[in-house]
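Batch manifest, entry 17 of 40.
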Amino acid sequence: KLDKYAASIIDRCFENDRDFAINILARPAAAFYNVYPLKLALQANCRAFLASKCVQKHLDNEWFGNINYKREHINIRVLNF
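Output type: structure tokens
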């Protein structure tokens, strides 16, 4: 139950200010002895929190960075010398 509550809170933060919400995930939480929220959620098996929009966006940024992974086609030109 706490898992779903945490997911709704982080998603509400994400709807209001995406950067702020993602920064919450990326920094250690002082209130929880400087444990990273994602690490804590993973250890506690908080699936709803890990599946939240905010966490998924953060993970997309970590995996793909500035790459537009939703782009359907990428044109690559090969030059012959």
